[in-house]
Structure formats: C-alpha cells, structure tokens
Amino acid sequence: MSSELIDRREALLRVSALLGGIALVGGSGLLSACSDRDRQTAQQQGVAGDPGFTPDQIALLDEIADTILPDTPKSPGAKAARVGAFMALMVTDTYDPKDAQIFRDGMTRIDALSREANDAPFLSATPAQRLALVERLDREQVEYMQQREAARRRPTGAQAKAEANLPDARKEGAPNAQAGAGGAVPITADAPTHWFRMMKELTMFGYFTSEIGYTKAMRYVESPGRFDPCAPYEPGDRSWAPHA
Fold first, then answer.
1. Which of 1, 49, 163, 215 is deepest in the core (most CB within 10 A)?
2. How many CB atoms lie within 10 A of CB 190?
3. Banded pLDDT at 10 (limits 50, 70, 90)
4. How far apart are CA 208 and CA 218, in angstroms?
C-alpha cells in the first residue's frame, strides 16, 4: 500500500471525526479514487471526471465549497484548490447511483433556495447571502443527521416489544420517545444522508488533501526528517500536516 494512500486514509478519518464521527458517503471508494494518479492530474487541472457535470455546475460547487472554506489572510480557500472538480469526480467515482442523484438534486435545491431567499441563483448571490444560506443548510443537516442517528439507536425486536409494555410515565421520559400526533414525522434509520452533508464532507476532504490545504492551511515539512514528539505550538497556530 502506498504511503499516499495511508495519508489519505488518515485524512478521511480526521474529516469524519470533525463532522461528528459518522462515516463519509463513498467510504473506502474515496481512497481508491484518490489513489489514481491520472485522476489527480485531472483535479489539479480543474477537469471533472464526469461529462455529466457541466462547467457551470463545477463553478457552482466551487462557490459552495469556497463559502464553506473561504480565503483567509493566511491561506487560499476551497475554490483555489479546485475543490469543485474534486467533488464532481468523487460523486462520479465513489457514490452509488442513489447517493449521486441525491447530491445532484441538492445542487438544484441550493440554487432554488437562493432564488427564494435572495431573488438570485447561488452564483449571483452576494457573499453575505451565500454564507447565510450555507449556515442555514448546515444547521438543517446537523439536525437531520442527529435525528437519523437517534432512529438507528432505537431498540428493535424483543427489546422494542419490552419497552412497548413500559408504564406510560417511563415511556414519556425515554430518550427515544416519539413526537406526538401533532409533531413532525420522525426521520427513519434508513433515511439517506442529507445532501448538504455530502457537500460539506467532500469540501473538507478535497481541501485538506489538496496541495493548498497541506502546504498553506496546514504546516508541512517534507519527510523523512528528524522525529520531534514535542513540536512547539501556540494557541491559534495552524496544525501540522502529515506527509502527503
């Protein structure tokens, strides 16, 4: 196994941890796609691996990603790292058809939401309008994913039957208690990943495995080199990137 693949696996685990420990859509397929040198060259040149993603769609993904990870005084943002093309490639090569369609529908949805809120498509909205929409969608996906995780933890089988016979007072105080008849329909355990969650996952994974992410957003030292278990760190410093 190549050292590059090991480092990307570590990056995948770190991004998953940052997003709450839930496995990323695409799973190990993300690693397989990333290990293809020709595909990496296509990403660096800003070329999507799937002709189904138009240049306008890749431009939309770039702007979504750049709103999530914008330029800072110390490092370029996601658009500079060509994350839009990376996202298109990963959806094409690692997502199953159902998830890929959810992602594509999400691209249409975010444009529609921008038109509703700002009377303009996402690409024509102001940076402040884009940020407000992205923050709203992020809150939505967090709540959605939390509800899905809660549904997956609900007891099934014999345990569910046993809890069904609990006294009403105990059932009402249970953490998995359902909403009343007037409440929203609960999200089920087999509900798909929220489409904005997919976009956020690929934005972070694409950026922090790119050359810009490694060398600009993080501190990078070419190895092999000396082993230093106590590298100096001050609050606010950038984290150290592993060997790419």
1. 49
2. 8
3. low
4. 8
Question: Which residues are registered as beta bridge partners of 199?
Answer: none
| Dist. CA 153–CA 150, nearest whole Å | 5
Question: Residue 240's beta-bridge partner residues?
Answer: 219
Helix (H) or strand (E) holding 8: helix 3-18
Cα–Cα distance measured from residue 93 to residue 34, given in angstroms and rounded to the nearest whole number: 10
207: its two tokens: 């950026």
**Residue 45 in contact with residue 102, Cβ under 8 Å?**
no
Quick: pLDDT tens for 35-65.
Answer: 444 444 444 444 444 457 999 999 999 999 9
- Sequence-distant (≥ 6) Cβ neighbours of residue 179 within 8 angstroms: 186
149, containing H or E segment: helix 127-153
Domain boundaries, the chain: 3-166+186-217
In degrees, rounded to 5, the angle at the alpha carbon of residue 151 between the alpha carbons of residues 148 and 157 is 150
User: Using an 8 Å Cβ cutoff, are 89 and 50 in contact?
Assistant: yes
The pLDDT > 70 percentage for the chain reads 62
DSSP structure string for 41-73: HHHHTT--S-TTS-HHHHHHHHHHHHHHS---S
Q: Are 85 and 40 in contact (CB under 8 A)?
A: no
Distances in whole angstroms, Cα of residue 201 to Cα of each of 183, 219, 225? 30, 22, 32
Q: What is residue 213's DSSP assignment?
A: I
Q: What is the pLDDT, as a whole number, of residue 85?
A: 93
- Whole-structure pTM value: 0.69
